[in-house]
Each structure stands twice: as structure tokens, then as C-alpha cells.
Amino acid sequence: MMKETTPIIEIKGIGEKTRKLFAKIGVETAGDLLACCPRDYELYKEPVLVAQAQPGQVCAVCVSVTGILGQKKLKSLDILNVAVSDRSGAMQLTFFNMPFLKKVLKPGIRYLFRGTVQSRGAAKVMEQPKLFSPEDYQKLTGRLQPKYPLTKGLTNQTVSKAVKQALSFYEFEPEYYPASILKRYQLLSRQEAVCGIHFPKDQEELAAARKRLVFDEFFSFLFLLRKNKEYTQTLPNQYPMFETADTVRLLEKMPFPLTGAQKRVWREVREDLNSPGCMNRLIQGDVGSGKTIIALLALLMCAANGFQGALMAPTEVLAMQHYETVQEYMQKYQAAFRPVLLVGSMTAKEKKAAYEKIASGEANLVIGTHALIQEKVQYRSLALVVTDEQHRFGVKQREQLAGKGNSPHILVMSATPIPRTLAIILYGDLAISVIDELPANRLPIKNCVVNTAYRPKAYAFIAKEAAMGHQAYVICPMVEEGELEDTENVIDYTQKLRAALPSDVQVAYLHGKMRPSEKNRIMEEFAKRNIDVLVSTTVIEVGINVPNATVMMVENAERFGLAQLHQLRGRVGRGDCQSYCIFINTRENKETMERLEILNHSNDGFFIASQDLKLRGPGDLFGIRQSGEFAFRMGDIYTDAPILQQASEAVEELMRNDPQLSGEEYLPLKQHLLSESGNGVDFRSI
Ligand code: ADP
Ligand code: MG
How far is ligand 2, taken at its centre, from the CA of residue 428, in Å? Predict the structure, then answer.
């Protein structure tokens, strides 16, 4: 028998060499293997007659070899052409670098070939078809066959066989849901689901299998959230804060008034900080809605009450930017911060100085990246923790930072466009504030989706904007040449732009492979307007705020998700000048055009996300970029929203009936959830 932790070397057919290959894709135990889900499936249909094989289709034919048409060598390529036929007609097979087949394929014997049919003149051809014995093929038909994520040397067949072996010897955990849940939500057993996800009979069985697995994932996550909420809701406010003159003065001195939505959210935060309970709040607001100021007001209130606050950002560039903003608030508006910066690229000496200021309480505001949650950092009186761009973190990191203090207030900010119904479920442990209004000075961004022929015009436009003192971003999907065909890369594009733009226009580049200190330097230069045009990868996507930038040009826009393009676009239109967004679409097919047109017509993140969803459709299970926060193994918060609803309903009901899971029928579930807590799920009280 096999268990979750059984090393895969114990599976028949897996030797040391294969074990190493599996390790490369992160599979070390039988449990890992079964959790390694196919990325797609293939249907092996019954063989067809040659006469029925349609060009463009993948099909299998059962034919006999009528002759070898020829073998030739083209450079390093060995090409073998074979003539085959059945009673209905003839076709030609072409094999590359398989010269040995000439000897293997015997005239007169029937073989099964499967591949894509092509037409070459009047003839039908299959290139590099797969060869099966009729018996082997028979075994594959009638079921969907899994296509696994692979690595060089590891074939789909090896994985598939190993999974079959593991499945037949695997000892599944006894069913943990009570019968009522299984019945109400029509869930397969875990065993049926795992078998079904690997070798489903048809699409229906696949969907049912997937449903159970996704339900499990959501259920565990939501249960944890719910427990967390129960715990945090009982936490007393250990750091009651009172409104002081500081925040009022800051608001008076600032050059703009808060929007109505900002005012409302600031009031909610202020009330939380002063209420009997500890704050746990999410601020959700589209890019550019002005979330930062709310965080800074809260942090100022915290400092003015004599406590420490921390602001964590997902990138160094963003942390630096927040630090600069705070400096500006101190100089221009005399905000009483004593800030300290803590990021990975600082020298050991700089870090040590920062640690000391944090431990002594000399710093009342700590701004940084993940560095803030490192062990060495000891806070003196951490009372408020803010995470910016929460969608880039996991729930875990948020908690780690909170764990640095003694139940501090928590404020998280996110621009992830999640419909409210989903947000309520996914942020079940948080109260939600929404900033649903953009500052009044904003002019709507002017968009255009164009093809590459438009480039010269775009460059002239950027030159004109630069001459007016404005700045521009140009986004390319790749860092350097050769990573992917037909895509622009930052390095070459920078050269191209330097040649195309007047010589007094300063062009620089930025990408993720640069050292953090170098990235910071470039961003600083850009913020100071010493750089006019910044060619960059999507590293600038999160949070960057340079209101003087008015042009966003995205090369190969078709390669990005709509939500990502919307985030990129959010880098402009942040000041009171008219801003422009130019999406270059290199693939002129109807679908990409339609997708990009959505951006062209809307500047609303929620709307864009929902449209993106519609176009993707639930069939599109793979290749979706998931945000760090809700990166479930299998479940997708958008396309699986109905399952998410059900899991949420099940958790809520459970919490109403028996929150401690003390009833007999809940024992297996309790066991199961506890065993999951070993896998990084942290149950504070169960
Ligand atoms: P995001 O919500 O994307 O984090 P920011 O907080 O970075 O947005 O704000 C974007 C820009 O809008 C900043 O330059 C900020 O100073 C400015 N801003 C924020 N609130 C207002 C307001 N009420 N009126 C005018 N400008 C504002
Ligand atoms: Mg922001």
C-alpha cells in the first residue's frame, strides 16, 4: 500500500534515474505524483478510414505499408517518406530523424498511426505520426488521456504509467465530509475525484472530478479564514488610537481634498483604530484611486499616538517610492514621521542601523519589503501593519508581519478587481472598504489599439510629449533577445528608440533581472525627470506612481492579460494632464483585437476583469496568471466562482452547527483539517 508520503522510488517502474527526473518537476512522493494534475487531455478516437481523414484533424488510421518512398538527408535532418493505404485510399507518412523505421515497418502488416492530417497537393500526409499496435491503441480509446507537465527526459507515458501504478496501490484517506455535504453539493469521493482527474472517461467525469478537488481546496482555505476571523474578532484593541491634530493638519495642508470615497474609507479606518476591537480591514480600490494616502493617514495617527507602524510593499521599487512620499509629507506638510527603510538590497551595515532604530522605537514608521518580516527585525511597539498591493502577497505573509507584533491592527490594500460577492468570501476574515471613485482632477485616459505600422507615429507622439516635459513608459514582454519569437525585448528596443527619438530625449531601461539597487536608481532618476522614456518589462506594473508620466505604450499587447494591461495603464493618468495609452497588437486576428478593444472602451477595472472572464470561458483551465494571494493549485476564483460560493456556504453552515467540530460526524473532517495544517495551513484554534 502507498500513502501520501511514500517515496516514488517504491512505485514499480521508477528507478533512480526517473526519480531524479520527477524531482525536477517537484514530485517526490506518491502524494506529489497524484497531485500533479494533467495540464490537458487528449481524446483517442476510434481509427478512421483514410478516405475519411480530414486535413487539419488529428486522427488515427489503421493501414498497411505499401512501400518506402524515399529517404533523404537535409543538413542534420533525416527524412523518411512511407506510403500506406487501407481499403479506402492511400496516404503518405513523413518521419524525421527516425531512419530505423525503415527496417521496422514491414510491408503487408497493419499498423496504427495517429497524427495531424495535412494535404500536400492532392495527397494526404501525416508528419511524425505516433505508431501504436492496434491492441495498445484499443486500450487508449474511449477515455481522455492525460497530458502531464513534463521535463526533458521525462515522457508523458512514464508519468502516466507511474500515476496508474500509484492509483492502484494508494490508500486514500477515509471520506472526511459528512454525508450531508457530499449529497448537497454532489461531490464525488476523493478517490473517485483523483482517479477522475487523471483518467476521466469524458468531459463530464472530468468536470465532476475537478469539482470535488476544487471544492476541497476552497473549503480548507475558507475554513482557515473563518477560524482566523473568529480569533481576530475576539481580539481586544490593545492599541487604541485617538485622532490628533496631526492628521487633520496634514489633510488641510495637502494640495487636494480627499474624494468622497476616500473620506468615507478614512472614517472607517479611524473608527476601527479607536474601537474596542482590533482592526482587520481591506481597502479595495482600482489603480489610481488613491489608497496610499489612507494608509499614510492611518500610519500617522499611529505614530502620533506613540506607536510604531509598518508598511510592507511587494517590490523594493515600490517600497522606495513610499519612503520618498513619506519624506515629501514630512518636508512639505511637517508630518511627524520618523521613518526607516528596510529592503533587501541595503548593506549589512545599513540594515543593522535600521534594526536598531526599529528595536529602540526611534523609528515610528518602518517601510520595506519582505525584509520587514525577517527574524532579525524586532519591533518595539508595533501597533499597525499595512500591506500594499496585497494581491502580490499570500495570506501567510500578511500574518507573518502581524505576528511580529502582539496582535497589531491590520490594514491591507489591493487593486485586484474582484466582484464584491467574491471579495466578501475570499477576504472573509476582513472588513472591506471600497474606494469606488477616482480623484476629480483626472481626465479619462485616451486609448488606442493599433498595429505595428503605427510605431513611427507613436514615436513622434512620445517625442512631442517629451518636448512638453512629460514622460513615457514603453513596455516590452521580454528582457533580451531570443527568449520568445516575434516579441520585443527591452534591451534591443531601447536601442531602437534611442535611434528613433531626438537625441535630447533621454531613454533608459528597467527590467526584473537588474540588481535591486540598480532598479531603484533608475526609478529614482525617472521620478526626478532625468529620464524621459523608460523602456521596461512589467516590473513597473505594481504601484509605481510618477504623475508626470503621460504616455504608456505597450508592445505585443496581445501577450498580456487584460487585468495586467489595465494595471500597466494605471501607471499613467495619475496627474492632471491628459494621458494616453497605446497598445500595439502584433497579432491581427479577430480574437485578440476583440479582447484589446475592451480596454479601448473601458477604464473600469471591475468591468475589464468581468469581460476578460467571459472571453476566457470556463473551458480555459490552464495558463491563467493567478495572483499570489489566491493562487490555488487548481481552483480559479473567477471561473470556479460557483464552487467557491458552495464551499463558502458549506463552511458557514458548519460554523453555525458545530464550530468546534465536536460532533461524531465531523471527526474525520477535524482530523483531515488538522493534518492539512501540517501543510502550511495554520489553525489557531480548532
Ligand atoms: P493607488 O490607489 O493606485 O495606490 P495612489 O495612492 O498611488 O493610487 O494615488 C495615485 C495618485 O493620485 C497619487 O499621485 C496621489 O497623490 C493622487 N491622489 C490621491 N488622492 C487624490 C485626491 N483626492 N485628489 C487628487 N489626487 C489624489
Ligand atoms: Mg498603490
Answer: 22
Residue written as cell 490537458? 40
Contact between residue 553 and residue 470 where contact means Cβ atoms under 8 Å apart: no
Per-residue pLDDT band for 675 (boundaries 50, 70, 90) equals confident
Residue 381 CA to ligand 1 center (angstroms) comes to 29
For the record, the C-alpha cell of 680 comes out as 502550511
CA distance 418 to 431: 15
Q: Which of 321, 344, 331 is nearest to 571 (CA)?
A: 321
> What's the 289 CA to ligand 1 centre distance in angstroms?
6
- The neighbour count for residue 365, using CB atoms within 10 Å, is 25
Q: What is the pLDDT of residues 203-251, one digit of tens each?
A: 999 999 999 999 999 999 899 888 888 888 888 999 999 999 999 999 9
Nine-digit cell string for 252: 488641510
- What does the alpha-carbon distance between residue 353 and residue 322 come to, in Å, rounded to a whole number? 20
Q: Which of 250, 253, 256, 437 to mutate to test the pocket of ligand 1 (most atoms within 8 A of CB)?
A: 256
Ligand nearest to the CA of 545: 1
385: phi then psi, degrees, rounded to nearest 5: -120, 125
| pLDDT for residue 47 | 92
Residue 536 Cα to ligand 1 middle (Å): 23
Residue 256 in contact with ligand 1 by CB distance below 6 A: yes
Segment 123-167, tens digit of pLDDT = 899 999 999 888 888 888 878 889 998 888 888 889 999 999 999
- Model confidence at 544: pLDDT above 70: yes
Instruction: Look up residue 333 and give its three cell numbers.
Output: 506638510
User: Are 33 and 166 a contacting pair, CB within 8 Å?
Assistant: yes
Q: Which listed ligand is nearest to 286 at the C-alpha?
A: 1
Ligand 1 atom nearest 570 alpha carbon? 3
Rounded to whole angstroms, how far apart are CA atoms 88 and 85? Answer: 8
